[in-house]
Amino acid sequence: MTTDFDLVIRGGTVVSADRATRQDLGIRAGQVVAAGTGLSPGRREVDATGLVVLPGLVDVHVHLREPGMTRKEDFRSGTRAAAAGGVTTVVDMPNTLPPVATAAGFTEKLALVAPKAHVDFGLYGMLGQDNADEIAALAAAGAMGLKLFMGQTTGDNPCPDDGAIHAGLRAAAAAGLVVGVHAENDALLRRLGRELRASGRTDPRAHLACRPAVVEVEAVTRIITLASDAGAQLHIHHLSTAAGLDRVRLMRMLGHRLTVEVLVAHLLLDDSAYDRHGNLVKLNPPIRPATDVAALWQGIAAGDVDLIATDHAPHTADEQAETDVWAAHGGFIGVETMLPLLLTEVHRGRLSLPDLVRLCCHTPARTWRIDDRKGHLGIGADADLVLVDPTAAGEVDPGHLHSRHPVTPYAGWPTVGAVRATYLRGELIAEDGRAVGDPTGRQLTPRPLPGGDDLARSDQETGPTGTASGSAGTGPRTGDAASPGRAGLPTPLVSA
Ligand SMILES: [Zn+2]
């Protein structure tokens, strides 16, 4: 049996969420089947001596713009960018045209995008004003989770009122879907925006001025309160302020459970970026002052931040050049640059490689319940892996990026650490910064919840599953997936 590997990745430093170990990986039928030293030869051999072997990154926050906005990006270009950047799983947001608010719409989108996917993917449905009755059907159709926009963003997606939010949260809890939230107070940011406009402000920083920390803090407090009452598993997308993080700590002390995401952009850029890049760095929530950036890094060090994502949000080059802040679009690309930029932070000593794996692979996969196959390189995991040269110095070159409009504030950003190759289920999908091969990405759906007698779906078996720790009686929140910090992380399945 041990001579029967399709592929052996030999001599690399394999990184899990808690250690980095020099070992070989044996791969058969797209899965990791052996790990150790001196594995017998495989039909294909890759010499990874001197390289770092990471699980493929899991980016739970991308906007690939299909259907309806393919002038900005499409599933092919966006997933090729992911492959080249070492991201082997993406979860795509539902604020497309039309928004994904019904099971029928979900199924249509799936049929449209699946043949174009170069990496594995999940699709979110929307938690909107009028679709609480659709949520069970969205889950049955294979939604990875739900996205709730409390604050205005790209697309025509009116923010639901608190009654609709609570109804949607209850339906999500019953269906076992994670609810990810864009937590900004819509009425407040709109009012402040009108006041700034009336005062004649048109500069890029006016965007920051109309979304002060209170816009986030209020929404975070409200959604944690509502989600806890509804019993829903809550994830806060792109938390951006020191005050917002303080509020999360306070709510956790009161017993509320949730996961918190920060963006690469909020970790690497501060408000001086408005002077250099203008409206290109308009982002919702905004790029913040350096004190907030420092607080997010502290939150990572303290274990208060659970994961990192990109909010890859492409627009056309013309749209990104808009000079009127009120007409400019929010967001910019990021899925292809995430790993080189974070490896650079590893080189600078702000993260360890196991931290990177925990924040970008392990915890995202566990939170959305795909960690039986994704987010680690233990026995039985999909052989989604990234070979990284940790010492290669370079810079971000927009000319090499795969997005339709490679406009990025990171152009020319010096990097240390480069993606040499990306494998999806044991097959090469990118090499030295170029996506290769035909699209072979598959749809991912969350594993059914273990236990939980308040689940509406009757076809779910109870009992121990994967790494979810015992959480019977706590409702649909999945064990330690929703607990803060590093404590209680399950032991990765990497064998010696
Ligand atoms: Zn987003």
TrEMBL record:
Domain Amidohydrolase-related: 52-428
GO terms for MF: allantoinase activity; cobalt ion binding; zinc ion binding
Gene Ontology cellular component terms for the protein in this record: cytoplasm
Domain of life: Bacteria
Entries under InterPro entries matching the protein: Allantoinase (IPR017593), Amidohydro-rel (IPR006680), DHOase/Allantoinase_Hydrolase (IPR050138), Dihydroorotase_CS (IPR002195), Metal-dep_hydrolase_composite (IPR011059), Metal_Hydrolase (IPR032466)
EC number: 3.5.2.5
Enzyme class: hydrolase
GO terms classed as biological process: allantoin catabolic process; purine nucleobase catabolic process
The keyword Zinc appears for this protein: yes
Subunit structure: Homotetramer.
Function: Catalyzes the reversible cyclization of carbamoyl aspartate to dihydroorotate.
Entries under NCBIfam families matching the protein: allantoinase (TIGR03178), pyrC_multi (TIGR00857)
Protein known as: allantoinase
Organism of derivation: Frankia canadensis
